[in-house]
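Exercise 7b. Backbone tokens:
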């Protein structure tokens, strides 16, 4: 994923599904370096990780 796209998703989180290593996550924060983000698993607010934005994937939801 590109940094710009991650910013758009953070602005409207309920409209998008994002995965990291095939696991659904929320993007909590984009870091100023433009390369990393803090995410947490959708089912667990406790477990947060810093990951490379390039490893995040936007999943297309079928409505």
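Sequence design result:
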């Amino acid at each position: 994923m590109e940094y710009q796209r991650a910013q758009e998703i953070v602005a409207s989180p309920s409209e998008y599904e994002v995965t990291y290593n095939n696991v659904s996550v929320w993007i909590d924060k984009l870091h100023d370096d433009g390369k990393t983000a803090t995410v947490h698993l959708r089912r667990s607010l406790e477990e947060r990780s810093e990951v490379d934005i390039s490893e995040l994937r936007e999943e297309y939801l079928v409505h």
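Instructor comment: Helices lie at 3-11. The chain is about 15% helix and 45% strand.
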